[in-house]
Amino acid sequence: MAQHSQTAPSGGSTGGSSQEQRSSRRAVTVFPLLILAGAAVALLFPQAFAGWGAGVTPALMIIMFGMGLTLSLPDFALVLKRPLPVIAGVILQFTIMPLLALGIATALDLPPQLAAGMILVGSVPGGTSSNVVTYLAKGDVALSVTMTSLSTLLSPLLTPLITLALAGQFLEVPTGSLALSLVQIVLVPIILGLIIHSLLPGFVRRIEPILPWVSVLGITYVVIAVVSGSGEVLAAAGLGLIVGVILHNLLGYGLGYAVAALVRFPVASRRAVSVEVGMQNSGLASGLAAQYFTPEAALPGAIFSVWHNISGGILASIWGRRRPDDHAEPTHR
Fold first, then answer.
1. How far is residue 287's CA from residue 292's CA, in Å, rounded to a whole number?
2. Which of 147, 126, 131, 125 lies closest to 20 in space, CA to CA?
3. CB under 8 Å to 188, separation ≥6 — which residues?
4. What pLDDT score does 280 carry?
5. CB 3.0–4.6 Å: which of 155, 198, 271, 302 could bond 125 by disulfide?
6. SS3 at position 280
7. Which listed CATH number (3.30.70.100, 1.20.1530.20, 3.40.50.300, 1.50.10.10) goes with 18-321?
8. Is there a contact between 235 and 105 (Cβ–Cβ < 8 Å)?
9. CB burial of residue 317 (10 Å; 0-12, 13-18, 19+)
């Protein structure tokens, strides 16, 4: 049976000091409030953030570097120890969310640029705050960390291919350029972070409490940059886009949990898979959409960034009150 970890993640590692745990909890609590405030200010005073678009890629690289600092090679050992839940979870991540995005965009008849942006949100890896949400929800933190890490490392290959297959009917998808950007934005910073963690573990431990805030501030920056340049489109899209984003996230949670239950994963693992499938690296999706599609295509990612942290907090609050049934029948080792 999978062992449920009760230690808080620092973003990657499943251990952590009490100071680091408190920092992670505060970051998850403040995250949606800070993003909502940033989005509101960007809508009210868009001219004040006119030049922020140029900083989106560096901001994403800093976020990914911070994630790399929290990872270590043992975080990937679960792929060998318990391959079934890890591989199944990653497959669900890259199938359920892209197909849901296509179905919802089609059902709501979203404009092509918004449909493509929603599909890109569905095609990126798991969200950077999913590990902390899984911890607060009393889920399998080790599984969550490994799923996030593996889906992120696979994203330079899978994200462009899935986006091309599903969003190519709406907008031209520059697959090669998208893949190269993902290598630059995702792989290189994460590998650098891993190397520094291996060489300077003491230094990394000292700065770990601030790393959740690096993600919070970085994604807030991306949301402000996107929203400030797309206020008119956001107002025109209005309720339809917001409903679509909410459905995308909630159905991701539900289907992730349902499939994990169907194959009889332990309850703690079901919670981890549910959170990993439902929460996306929407800041990355926004940055890529703004760079390779249109500013409007970045809006689904910006809205998703706000909503999935609110819903993740609610889900963690509900599940966190109930310990998982440790006697649920396992199907893996």
1. 9
2. 131
3. 61
4. 92
5. 155
6. strand
7. 1.20.1530.20
8. no
9. exposed
**Amino acid occupying residue 70:** T
> Which amino acid, residue 170?
F
pLDDT digits (tens, 9 = 90+) for 113-163: 999 999 999 999 987 778 778 877 888 878 888 898 889 889 999 999 999
CB atoms within 10 A of CB 239: 8
Q: How many residues does the chain have?
A: 333
DSSP states along 73-138: GGGGTHHHHSHHHHHHHHHHHHHHHHHHHHHHHHHTT--HHHHHHHHHHHHS-B-TTHHHHHHHTT
Q: For residue 13, what pLDDT is reported?
A: 47
The candidate with the shortest Cα–Cα distance to 141, out of 279, 15, 282, 280, is: 15
Helix extents (H) in 184-266: 188-199, 201-207, 211-228, 231-262
Contact 255, 276 (CB under 8 A): no
Residue type, 295: P
> Tokens representing 45?
């005073």
Structure tokens at 159: 């994200």
Q: How far is CA 245 from the centre of its chain?
A: 14
Report which of 137, 130, 3 is spatially closest to residue 78, judged by C-alpha positions: 3
Looking at the chain, the number of H-run helices and the number of E-run strands are 15, 0
Between CA 17 and CA 30 the distance in angstroms is 20
